[in-house]
Design a protein that fits this description.
By secondary structure, the chain is of the alpha+beta class. It has helices spanning 3-8, 10-25, 82-86, 205-217, 254-265, 267-280; strands spanning 41-48, 53-54, 61-68, 74-80, 96-100, 103-105, 118-120, 126-130, 163-172, 176-178, 183-191, 197-203, 223-232, 238-240, 246-249. Strands 1, 2, 3, 4, 5, 6, 7 and 8 form an eight-stranded mixed β-sheet that branches. Strand 13 and strand 14 (238-240) form a beta hairpin. The longest helix has 16 residues, at 10-25. The protein is globular, with a radius of gyration of 24 Å. It starts with a helix and ends in a 20-residue tail after the last helix. 25% of the residues are buried. Mean pLDDT is 84; it is low at 1-8, 13-22 and 281-300.
């Protein structure tokens, strides 16, 4: 029944509104959904999508994504086996979805919980993307919350402690093999608005996927949000990805927008840094100082 028909038929219009009201009664935010909730739909943003992993015994393949609702409350959603590929094209970072009747359970004991519960998305779960042109029920606005560590405090972070950062990528090395087991990796140099720089090591899959994208975009100085990375002593103090890290390239956070504006205002300085480091790349991938930062030994 189309809208014109409903206008001519008040009973039909009343029926349509009753269906819509019933549908909205099942629409719940994350904090209202428990294992006892039987019929529900939640409108959420996908904000984190790490790569699929295998259990320690190698028998189970799983993927843990994180979604966030209109209140920016978060919950982890787990996919297993064939369900990972089945929903791979649906679950795109920073898209909005209506997720209905996923299994709700207490997080497994060996995981760091995002919420008091977690969801399991399987073949019985309904996942529907909310399109940008949906006027009646539009997508959620971009997320705003980030819990990142300032560069000034990176040296204070304990080794193997996970944290998040936001930074500009100013240099991207080529693929190489390093470490005790000759693992594949790539060094990138990241910078904050104080022109402070660190090396971030991208290992294995991060080198192939994210590293390749950053290498192609490095001349534009992309902004990354690196989640669940850690501090290491590789080549001195540096940062490193872990198996469960996430690298977001130019994600739609307002903090990223402000950093992109800083890049636009400081492009000449960034280009000078990049040119100086390119000329030194054969020797070392270490950030070269600006001329006015160099102090003669006699003045020290």
């Amino acid at each position: 029944m189309d809208l014109d028909t409903l206008k001519l038929n008040p009973l039909g219009l009343t029926y349509a509104f009753s269906i819509y009201r019933e549908y909205m009664e099942y629409r719940l935010t994350i904090d209202k959904i428990t294992p006892q909730t039987k019929e529900w739909t939640s409108k959420v943003h996908l904000i984190k999508k790490p790569r699929p992993r295998k259990s320690k015994d190698g028998k189970t393949r799983f993927q843990i994504v994180v979604v966030q609702d209109e209140n920016e409350d978060k919950v982890a959603a787990v996919l297993y086996g064939e369900d990972i590929e089945k929903d791979a094209h649906k679950l795109t970072p920073f898209s909005t979805y209506l997720i209905s009747t996923a299994k709700v359970r207490i997080p497994l004991p060996y995981r760091v919980p995002t919420n008091r519960f977690e969801w399991v998305i399987d073949r019985f779960t309904v996942v529907e993307e909310v399109k940008d042109d949906n006027i009646q029920d539009p997508p959620l606005p971009p997320p705003t919350r980030l819990n990142t560590i300032h560069f000034a405090y990176l040296q204070e972070q304990q080794q193997n402690k996970e944290f998040d950062i936001i930074a500009v990528v100013v240099n991207c090395g080529s693929i190489k093999y390093d470490g005790a087991n000759s693992n594949k990796c790539r060094e990138i140099i990241i910078m904050d608005t104080g022109m402070n720089s660190f090396i971030l090591m991208l290992w294995e899959d991060f080198d192939d996927v994210d590293g390749s994208i950053l290498a192609a975009q490095v001349a534009k100085y992309p902004v990354i949000v690196a989640k669940r990375i850690t501090r290491t002593t590789y080549g001195g103090l540096s940062l490193s990805t872990r198996y469960n890290s996430v690298i977001l390239i130019n994600p739609p956070y307002p903090q990223v927008g402000r950093l992109q504006n800083w890049v636009a205002d400081n492009r000449p300085r960034l280009m000078r840094y990049s040119q100086q480091n390119s000329s030194r790349a054969a020797l070392s991938l270490v950030m070269a100082p600006e001329d006015n930062d160099i102090v003669p030994i006699a003045n020290i």
